[in-house]
Structure prediction request, 70 residues.
Amino acid sequence: AGVGRTGTVTVACVLKRLIEQGLVNESNFMDHLQRLILQGREQRGPDFVQTEKQFESLCKWSWRALQRMQ
Prediction:
């Protein structure tokens, strides 16, 4: 239980670090986001970032984090 929520928080933390390091930008954030989710699913199972709402939240959060870094 909670794998989707935990996965969402985990991906957000990793993305934050990658954004701060300058490795993620507006043109590649979706690629990084999808890759992180797939890696999490390979390691933790298919429920890692389980719902569409969790995915949408990550997209919105990532975009806002990128905007703050500019």
Summary: Residues 12 and 58 are 7 Å apart (CA to CA).
